[in-house]
UniProtKB/TrEMBL annotation:
Protein known as: TIM protein
Gene that this sequence comes from: Timeless_2
GO biological process: DNA repair; DNA replication checkpoint signaling; replication fork arrest
InterPro entries xrefs: Timeless
Gene Ontology molecular function terms on file: DNA binding
Cited Pfam families: HTH_TIMELESS
Length: 89
């Protein structure tokens, strides 16, 4: 691609760079640009999250999110997911 240098002037995602180097339309359907879906929070998980928040909210000097993550019954949730869900609730 003789005009690839122009594309390098602008910010690219990893998926766009892969397409530039391997050829356009080289990504399979659903790869690269779309992120994997995060499993939705169930009502039971939301209830547990709310209870853990109220339990650890008053702890001084402690990281509330770290305490919640340590006591969440479902593993695999990230800090970012927990914070986002708390803000949404």
């Amino acid at each position: 691609n003789k005009k690839a240098f122009v594309e390098l002037l602008f910010w690219k995602s990893p998926a766009a760079v892969y397409e530039m180097t391997k050829g356009y339309s080289s990504l399979q359907e659903g790869e690269g640009t779309t992120r994997s879906r995060v499993p939705p929070w169930t009502p039971q998980e939301e209830q547990e999250l709310q209870e853990l928040y109220w339990k650890y909210k008053e702890v001084e000097g402690g990281d509330i999110i770290a305490a919640i993550l340590a006591h969440l019954p479902t593993p695999g949730r990230t800090r970012r997911q927990v914070v986002k869900q708390l803000v949404q609730m």
